[in-house]
Amino acid sequence: MAKRILGPTGSRRRRRFLLGPILLVVLTALFVTVGAQAVHDEGLFELGPTPTAPEAGITNILGNATDPGPDWADLFTAAGLLKDSDNDGNPDFREVYGGHAAAFIADPSSAGGATDPSTFSGFGTSNKNNDAISDEDCLNRDPPLTGSNCAPWGWDSGNVPAKDDLTNVYSYEAINPANSHLFLYAGIEREDPSGDSHVDIEYFQDQVSLGETNNFEGLRTVNDVIVVMDFRRGGALGSVSIRRWNGDEYVQVGLAGGQGCFASPDGDPDSICAFNNGANINGGPWPNYDNHGNEITTLAQNAFTEIGVDLTELIGSSPCISTFMGKTRSSASFTAELKDFAGPQGFDVCQPSTDLAASASATTTHSGDSVTLTFTEGNDGNETLLNPSVTTDNAACNSNLAYSSGDTDLDGKLDSGETWSFTCTISPTADTTVTATGSGVGELSGKTVTFCTEPPNANTICDADEQASVAIDVMSPSTALVKKASVTVTYRYEETNDGDGPLSSPTVTDNNCTPVTAVVDSNGKNQGDADLDGVFDPLETWLFACSRSASTLGADVDVTNIAVGSGVDSLNSTVTFCTDPANPPANTICDQDERDRVRVQVTHLPGGAG
Fold first, then answer.
1. Where does a domain end: 444, 475, 506?
2. What digits encode the pLDDT tens for the residues 108-133?
């Protein structure tokens, strides 16, 4: 057997307790539930003795394809990372099993003379369950703990007895689709199950982490939870209790008297289930260790424990857990000195978020026409939203605004990745802009996400994407008779080559009429091209024309048109009118006869019908 080697501070083994980023996702209704809804029989997880081979009747780690729900080996790889069978970046705990969160902690060992870099025991001062986590946590108490009364946790490397030395700790969350309760599962491995020992797994809503100077960072929040496991001599499970943080201390909210499943104080069946492995079992794909630090593949009887808790039933809430850690104590007293710890390890923080868009069946319409408005509410966060809704600033829309489509799994919840549509119909008689606001409540965080600039309270998240507008232009066609005189003027231009050489590309431009085009015959030749050779020969007069409309509304029109002709001689110089003949442009021959003007007057006739 190989000794468990920790390695230097920067080694992979030394860092493993920090690995394992978690994706927070939302459970979709993947399972059909029957009978009593309990943490062990609803098909969300393989908790407790398995009914099938290879370890029938024994609590184990391996997953079984014939049993509903995952077991621990279905969730994590040999390296303790999230398993992703199809390598698409979406871990199996979510994609295959519909879980909410999962995390694995491989804790270093102090067995066999090694030093565990993460212990409470090496810090040298008091570290107990109800103590403040950090300086910030001291100030979070009511009243705040100050001065010598503030004695937060500290950590350092050290050695702990094998019976208090954690190795692997892992946890999993799922939401029961039958009642939306948050189910919490956890598993631990101990190096030495022979003696009495006491293990706590603490779940924080705040992000708790190790500081750089042997301190902790983060704080406790009301409805944080500790799962307390007490083991008798020989490693048998004595009791499991659940405690809730009330703002000042942890108070017990549920108790299981030993191995098996137990009802909550309110009588809900199987709200707490806890099991030890009743015989040797396969330790799973990841490394396991004995009390000498040797790597093993088989866990001895009572070395593995797993629990399941209906957290919502026990504490009356479904907290959004962001971090968890395992801890051991020196005695059965809940406030005894803490020894080893594994973690802290993060679950993803709940981040309710949505994106609202608005559209209309027509953005330009006649007065009184019906227009259908559609508002799409997309959940682009990582938390399921309850009570998704849309409201507008338009009373006519609000009177018939209703859900249209998008609830793909028909669970009545706006799941992460879903987009719901809401529609209404209005009949505007004037230009109208409708502004919509969306909202929803995080299933775990309990926070409302909506549009606002300043959150009105701690339970509201302001999201600028939760507001969208659509504008409708209303046309009101009408007619009115006015006196109008209108005339079409056709300009004809005669361009004569009175020089001694042929010109190419003869053109005429007009400052008040376009386009000026050549007057051509049936052959497509300019009517002035006497020899039909397409060349503007000397003494030829080519014809051009342009038409435009001149009109008046109760006023006279007086327009002067200026026409300019041009052509290119055989030396590639342009012959045309120049505004400054003394300084002609390059390659230009100025001919002041190449410009003429004409004046058109249109006179309004009083009393005319137009």
1. 475
2. 888 767 788 889 977 767 799 999 99
**Which of 409, 424, 410, 419 has the alpha carbon at shortest distance from 440?**
419
CB 259 within 8 A of CB 238: no
Supply 207's token pair: 């992000």
Domain of residue 538, residue span: 485-602
Nearest to 354 by CA among 410, 291, 414: 414
The Cα 109–Cα 507 span in angstroms is 96
Determine phi and psi for 260, rounding to 5 degrees: 125, -160
Which helix (H) or strand (E) segment holds residue 74: the answer is helix 72-75
pLDDT for residue 449: 94
User: Is the pLDDT higher at 557 or at 362?
Assistant: 362
Same domain, 411 and 489: no
Look up residue 584 and give its DSSP letter: P
Considering the domain architecture, whether residues 471 and 489 belong to the same structural domain is answered as: no
Is 402 found in the same domain as 307?
A: no
Residue whose C-alpha is closest to residue 405's, from 382, 386, 388, 427? 388
User: Could you tell me if 159 and 283 lie in one domain?
Assistant: yes
Give the CA radius of gyration of the chain.
42
Q: How far is CA 506 from CA 428, 536, 566, in A?
A: 58, 7, 6
Q: Is 141 helix (H, G, I), strand (E, B) or coil?
A: coil
**Distance from C-alpha of 504 to C-alpha of 569, rounded to nearest angstrom:** 6
- pLDDT for position 417: 83
Q: Check whether residue 227 and residue 339 sit in a common domain.
A: yes
Helix (H, G, I), strand (E, B) or coil at 14: helix
Q: What is the model's pTM?
A: 0.62
**For residues 448 and 112, what is the distance between their CA atoms, to the nearest angstrom?**
52
End-to-end CA distance of the chain: give it in Å, rounded: 110
DSSP 318-345: -----EEEEEEESSSSTTSPEEEEEEEE
> Are 266 and 224 in a shared domain?
yes
Task: Give the HSE-up count for residue 246: Cα atoms under 13 Å, Cβ half-sphere.
Answer: 8
Report yes or no: 74 and 66 within 8 Å, Cβ to Cβ: no
